[in-house]
Design a protein that fits this description.
Elements (H helix, E strand, L loop, with lengths): L5 H4 L3 E7 L4 E2 L11 E8 L8 E2 L3 E7 L6 H5 L2 E6 L2 E10 L2 E2 L1 E5 L3 E7 L4 H12 L4 E8 L7 E8 L2 E8 L4 E8 L7 H17 L9 H15 L3
Parallel strand pairs: 5-13, 6-14
Antiparallel strand pairs: 1-11, 2-3, 3-10, 4-5, 6-7, 7-8, 9-10, 11-14, 12-13
Length: 231
């Protein structure tokens, strides 16, 4: 595996992972008005993500380690609870630990709770969660993805296939929870970053013999320059 330069290792990468955890609308007590409180898990620890990539030879997934996220970290973030990856559809918010979005960190992950606002978006969120149409929550975070002190890489062989796991052990910040039915990316920028990340990681994981050396690249460039010179 190619050794990272200091500049690459310190690069901050934005990621979004989907948590397929069940959401609930809290039941109202006897004689109480219908509840508008939505609860669930935004982050699950030690749970394999959907594949970053997968083919006949190898498969790569991500895992969030428990030590990556603490309440102290979250209390220093501005976290918006949105819907459908749309940051204009704000349902709740926690800014530096205060606001309409509350959360706790336990051995399973990060649980959240908020009262859906009395708006069209709040009513829609309640109905979709009650019906089970929204099956989970995605969360967005930033980390030094290429620094192995932040993201650890492990490899194992199983049934003739290479299984690669990237375990996120340290996170710089969390800035978005979103109610979502699938792990779609929230915007073009995040999708582009994800594609660049996958491309970079797959290049790293190629055997050394499959990567052209710097000397070979220089030779090819010199041949191209020579071919373009006038005779």
């Amino acid at each position: 595996m190619k050794k990272e330069t200091n500049n690459t290792a310190r690069e901050i990468v934005a990621r979004m992972l989907h948590t397929p955890a069940e959401l609930h609308v809290r039941e109202a007590g006897e004689g109480e008005a219908q509840s508008r409180t939505i609860t669930g898990y935004a982050i699950l620890f030690n749970t394999l993500s959907a594949p970053l990539w997968a083919d006949d030879e190898e498969e790569a997934r991500e895992v969030i380690a428990p030590e990556a996220i603490t309440k102290e970290l979250l209390d220093g973030c501005d976290i918006k609870m949105t819907m459908f990856h749309d940051r204009q559809l704000i349902l709740a918010r926690s800014n530096n630990g205060a606001g309409t979005l509350t959360y706790t960190v336990d051995e399973r992950g990060v649980a959240f709770s908020f009262d859906a606002p009395n708006t069209a978006d709040g009513d829609k969120a309640l109905e979709l969660v009650r019906r089970g149409d929204i099956s989970g929550c995605s969360f967005a975070f930033r980390t030094h993805y290429y620094d192995r002190a932040y993201v650890e890489r492990s490899v194992e062989r199983k049934d003739g296939k290479t299984l690669i796991t990237y375990t996120v052990r340290s996170i710089l910040g969390v800035y978005d929870f979103t109610l979502a039915a699938d792990p779609a990316y929230p915007d073009t920028n995040c999708e582009t970053e994800a594609r660049e990340l996958v491309s970079h990681l797959r290049e790293q994981d190629k055997p050394e013999g499959k990567r052209p050396s710097e000397k070979m690249r220089e030779q090819v460039q010199e041949m191209r320059r020579a071919a373009s010179r006038p005779i």
